């Protein structure tokens, strides 16, 4: 049984999902457990308060829910942390203050602009926009260690003018390989995020080629998440995950508790 360890609830600015409904969906789909990873994106452009979390309320509600389901379904409490280099001092302080099970480090904002917005691509080619995104990940990796895995490494292709029509790992292999090597050196993992299927890309984020390359370079830590913002998207297309990961060279996937990974056979 797989775990879904990337999902959002009403604590995220882009979701109104009830955590209990997310759990019921996970149970109905036969998952082994789940981890909530609501958004914290400080200094988010245009709407700077949209992705802030009231942490006392977050832990209060989710801890109560965790206890209610403890006898029948494991529920962990995590965070998706929006990384930007100028937050290199502030974000680790937040992570140290609270007892998260799992922290995903993600790039949502590149040089004060989210690639979700079309203006991110103004005045630049799609390839240049994608390369800027990947290079921004390296900028984050130079100053952050306060996360466990890096989320949806090629998130940018979800929103490009041609999405992934002309995108390949090989086109950006130099910078992507540097990202993967740096993560491995830091002891960090990556995720397979099935949100790519939900967005119609026909591939997970990151693509199968990147998953395989991470493993070839010696990476061993892989988590699984659907990036669900609604109950119906929990475990989205998880039926595809075991074959993709096995083809990439993985035999196990990871689930974090108290910031430590446990490994489950695929």
Blueprint of the fold:
Layout: E1 3-4, H1 19-28, E2 33-40, H2 55-69, E3 75-82, H3 90-97, E4 102-106, H4 126-141, E5 149-150, H5 173-185, E6 189-193, H6 195-198, H7 208-216, E7 222-225, H8 241-247, E8 252-257, E9 260-265
Parallel strand pairs: 1-2, 2-3, 3-4, 4-5, 5-6, 6-7
Antiparallel strand pairs: 8-9
Helix pairs in contact: 4-5
> Can you give the helix content as a percent range?
25-40%
Strand content: 15-25%
The pLDDT mean sits at 98
Order of helices and strands: EHEHEHEHEHEHHEHEE
**Number of helical segments with 4 or more residues:** 8
- Looking across the biggest beta sheet, what order are the strands in? 1-2-3-4-5-6-7
Q: What would you report as the Rg, rounded to the nearest angstrom?
A: 17 Å
Shape verdict:
globular
The biggest beta sheet reads:
7 strands, parallel
N-C termini distance:
8 Å
Q: How many strand elements?
A: 9
* Classification by helices and strands: alpha/beta
> Which stretches are poorly predicted, pLDDT < 50 over at least 5 residues?
none
Describe the protein's architecture and organization.
The chain is globular. Helix 4 runs parallel beside helix 5. The chain has 266 residues and is α/β, with parallel strands linked by helices. The protein has a seven-stranded parallel β-sheet with strand order 1-2-3-4-5-6-7, covered by helices on one side. It has a two-stranded antiparallel sheet with strand order 8-9. It contains eight helices and nine strands. The chain has helices at residues 19-28, 55-69, 90-97, 126-141, 173-185, 195-198, 208-216, 241-247, and strands at 3-4, 33-40, 75-82, 102-106, 149-150, 189-193, 222-225, 252-257, 260-265. The mean pLDDT is 98.
């Amino acid at each position: 049984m797989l775990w879904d360890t990337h999902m959002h609830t009403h604590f995220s600015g882009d979701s109104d999902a009830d955590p209990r409904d997310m759990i019921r969906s996970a149970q109905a789909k036969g998952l082994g457990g789940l981890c909530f990873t609501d958004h914290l994106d400080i200094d988010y452009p245009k709407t700077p308060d949209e992705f802030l979390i009231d942490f006392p309320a977050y832990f209060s509600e989710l801890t109560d829910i965790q206890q209610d389901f403890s006898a029948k379904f494991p529920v962990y409490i995590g965070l998706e942390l929006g990384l930007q280099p100028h937050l290199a001092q502030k974000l680790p302080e937040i992570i140290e203050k609270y007892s998260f099970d799992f922290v995903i480090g993600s790039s949502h904002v590149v040089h004060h602009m989210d690639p979700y917005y079309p203006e991110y691509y103004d005045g630049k080619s799609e390839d240049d926009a994608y390369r800027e995104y990947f290079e921004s990940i390296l900028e984050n990796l130079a100053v952050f260690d306060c996360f466990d895995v890096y989320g949806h490494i090629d998130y940018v292709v979800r929103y490009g003018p041609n999405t992934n029509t002309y995108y390949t790992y090989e086109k950006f292999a130099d910078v992507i390989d540097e990202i993967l090597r740096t993560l491995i050196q830091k002891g960090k993992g990556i995720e397979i995020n099935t949100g790519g299927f939900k967005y119609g890309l026909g591939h997970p984020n990151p693509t199968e080629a990147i998953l395989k390359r991470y493993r070839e370079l010696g990476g061993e830590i892989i988590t699984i998440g659907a990036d669900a913002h609604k109950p119906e998207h929990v475990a989205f297309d998880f039926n595809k995950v075991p074959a993709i990961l096995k083809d990439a060279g993985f035999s196990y996937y990871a689930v974090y508790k108290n910031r430590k990974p446990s490994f489950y056979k695929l």
